[in-house]
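Journal club prep — side note

Before the paper discussion, L.F. wants everyone to see what a predicted structure for a comparable chain looks like in token form. Sequence:
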Amino acid sequence: RPEGRSGPLSRTVDSFVAYWERWAKTWEFQALLKARPVAGDRELGAELLRRAEAFVYPDELDPAVVAEVRAMKGRVESKPEVVRHGERQVKLGPGGLRDIEFAVQLLQLVHGRADRTLRVPGTLPALRALAVGGYIADEDAETFAAAYRELRRVEHRLQLAHERRTHTIPDDEDRQEWLARSLGYRPREDDPARTAFLRDLRDVQAQVRSLHAKLFYRPLLEAHASVRAEHAGLTLPHEVRAIGEEAALTRLEALGFRDARAALRDVRALTSGVSRRATTLRAVLPAMLHVLQDSPDPDGGLRVFRTLVETHGRTSKLLSHLRDHPPAAAFLARVLGTSEVAGELLVSQPQGVAWLRDEELWDTSRSRDELVEMALGRLQWQDFEAALRRFKRHELLRTVLRDVSERASVSIVGEELTALGEACLEAALVAVLRQVADELDTEVEELPVRMAVIGVGKLGGAELHYVSDLDVLFVHEPADGADEQEASQLALRIAERVMRSLSAITAEGTAFEVDADLRPEGRSGPLSRTLGSYQAYHERWGEPWERQALLKARHAAGDAALGQRFIAWSQSLAYAEGFDESELVAMRKMKARIERERVDRRNDPKRNLKLGPGGLSDVEWTVQLLQRQHGADVPLVRTTNTMTALDALQDASLLEHRHAAWMREGYRHLSTVRNRLYLLRQRNVDVLPKTADVTERLARSLGYGRGGRQEFEEDHRRHTRHIRRVTEQVFYDADPEFRVPGA
């Protein structure tokens, strides 16, 4: 009773309420879960329980209550008599009755606020209600119920022995034998009855302890606790009927849904009916809605979740994963509310849901060698191209999850996408070489040509964005004794097939768009050349911008020795001595022309992330100018990666510390924004959105709080101003001839 032995034996209902309002502790409300009228005036007893409901099942439950209940359980287990007796204590010890009761009662406290069917005083009825409501698995409820009955049976036998209150198995072997036989155990051969009894008891306690840990320490219980009961009730059809549709819409709007009617349709579609799926979702969805409300796009997240459930909810382990692994449900809500692309990837490959449960599966980057081995494994499949596309989507989902969960920086994302692109290139080249060898009735090693694929652009820089093409050059050489013309014709055939193998649109989509337009003569030139042909072209016709493009050249796939010879030559050309004023002017004119011709003037150029003033192009061209100017004398700056080059230029005192920092921060910001626009499924990832709604979603996906659009816009302008200031000072040397209108 209130104040225990110090308090009055009887109180009025109002006195109880006054005490609850001012003094009651969490454990006292937990104790009221068991309250029911047993004697005297039943109406008065019912009135007390009715008034108690608001305290036991408040609309808002402080997540600290969950921690208090857990702490209380810890204090019970740390009592000296419990520690001393350990597993012999069938009530308070590990795996005992209290493990079951505390787990059940905590679930009642958290979920019973919205679901009145859980407001029952008995442990076994509460277990049935939790299972029927989908809050725990049927098999878990059955395990707990069977264990509860068995432990109670043991407790009753102990107390009947001497008609006294005890919960401890005696340590005396004779008394243990009596207890075992009273429970129906009998000696077998040389084993006394107590041997089998104690073994079975330990098994029951181990099951209880394991299940207690799973349910009692669910990380999502705190999230469920912080969900307002009125919001949790949105997933219970009878609650929605009771409050009316307009009230339900108002609550969804309060949760941040822009189209509340569409959201209500989605909720109804997910939770209506008596199927196991609907039952489980009524338990899982409240906390997911709570997480979605803080995501950039709650509407999109709920919409994609419905698609995911309707596509795979009956045939996959999706729902059991979400119910039994609450952190996975919370993370899924966060992912779907941040990235529609992630949702689409999960819909196309639901096996990825297992990753939500086990972070170790995607917590670290895969190396290029690992990815190449995995991609080559797809060569055994009958439809290699389809298998390669599924592999690409599988690994893309992995990177997206690491990105959204902030396990991978934008630089790491670029490296992972690059490694994935190279793995697909390697596998496609090997597949085509095998096809061609089969057609010629020979072995790959006997083909008259060797080939390598050179990455340029962002592929060469190992800084791919989600939307980046694979910019490549193909280089080949005749095998010893082979006819050069025959080798060249075969190389063209192989290059065409590799590009088609990756870029062709199939029922499984595309793997990567492959672009070879940076080759000599562009689209008019042959797809593949010998190294000698590349050298001859550049000696006679090579333009400054083509030498600049070779700064990014890096071996990506195919014959390693040939690839490295190409890189050695391309570096000697790109970093050749004698970079003069004419090449400087040519670079400036080319960049200024690109800015004038490619930026759509119908839109504000300052919002163009790639080519606008202060955009990605400003950083890249400024870095590449400094590399071309100083690379011959300063080997440190010879790198294909923009961020690494910025560090090297700063270390070599070729770029001021402040300017290098501005460029690094700005490049990181712009790359992240571009990637986030892709994850939000925006068509044009090169331009900041015009609408406030989409910009707000973008800002929130970048970690800005609700209403953070203006702060994001200000930060974006600061980054682009800094980049442009360095570009004008270093690249254009403050020459007004090259100023772009609106810059």
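L.F.'s comment for the group: The first strand starts at residue 449 and ends at 455. Keep this in mind when we get to the figures.
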